[in-house]
Amino acid sequence: MQTGKIDLNLFEYLDVLLRERNVTRAASHLGLSQPAMSNGLRRLRNLFDDPLLVRTSEGMTPTERANELQPIIRDVLAKVDKAIQPKANFEAASAERVFRIMASDYAESTIFPSILRRLREESPGVSLDIMTPSDVSFHDVEQGKVDMVINRFDSIPQSFHQMTIWQDHFACLFSADNPIRDDFNLETYLQAQHVWVSKTGMGVGVGINPDDVQRLGWVDEALSKLGRKRHITVFTRHYQAAMLMAEQKDLIVTIPARAGRLQAHNPRVVIAEPPFEIPPIDLKVAWSPLLQHNPAHQWMRRLIVEVAQQQS
Known about the structure:
Arc Repressor Mutant, subunit A
C-alpha cells in the first residue's frame, strides 16, 4: 500500500464499489460519471496494490484483499460520519423530518399506533414512511436508505446495530361459534383447520412448502418436537387478514399474543392459550452503523423503546 496523503473519498468509493460490485451503479450512487468512477477504481488499485474487483462469470467479484478491507473501510467511514455530525441535539418539537421504517404487519399493528400518538404530541413535524418487508433489502438498510427495520429476524448482518423491543408469547384465535371452544386441547387443536401467518426477515418472499417445518416457523417447529403436525388451510403474510379469518367457524389462528389482543373486544372471536408450549419470539429493531450516531436517529430509537416499555 502506498503511504502519504490519502483521499478519504477513495474509501467511500471502495465501500460503494464493494456493495454494488458494478462500476456503473456505484457511479450513479455517488453522483459521478462512469469514467470518474473507473478512475477512482484505478487509484484504489494503485493505493492497495491489488485489483480489488475482478471480472468473472458472476460479474465483478471482490478479491481476498478487498473482503479483508471492507469491514475496515466501513468502520473508518462510520467514525468519520460520527466526527462530522453536528453537536446540537435533535429538537423534536420543531423538527421537520421523515423517518423511513420497515415494519412487519405484526409490528405495524401492535406498536406503531402508540408511536404515532407520541409523535403527534411531541413532534408534529415528524412523518413516518412505513415500508413492508418486501419493499426493503438489507442492502438498503446498510446504505442508510431506510432508517431502521422492525421485525422478527432469523439472521441480521453482523455490521448492523440491533436491540430487542419486546418478547412475545402466542395465542390462539377462533370463532365464538366454533365447537372447539368447549373442549380446547391438543387433540381438538390438531383436528381443526388452521391459518398460518408469518413474515420474518426482509425481501421478496417465496411460496410456502407445507412439509418444510423449519421454514413454517415457531408454531410448527414446536408441534414437530411433539411428533405432531397441524392441517394448514390458508397461508398468509398479513396478521390483520388472519385475525379476520379467525371469525370463520372452523378455523384457528395461532399468532403472537400482542397481535391477538387487538381482537380482545371482538365478540365474534375467542382468545385462548395454545394447548402446547411454543417458545416466545423477539421483536427487534435494527439499523445501519452509518446512522448509529445520528442525533435524530438516536431520538427515534429512544422513543420506540419507551413506547415498547409502556406497552409491556
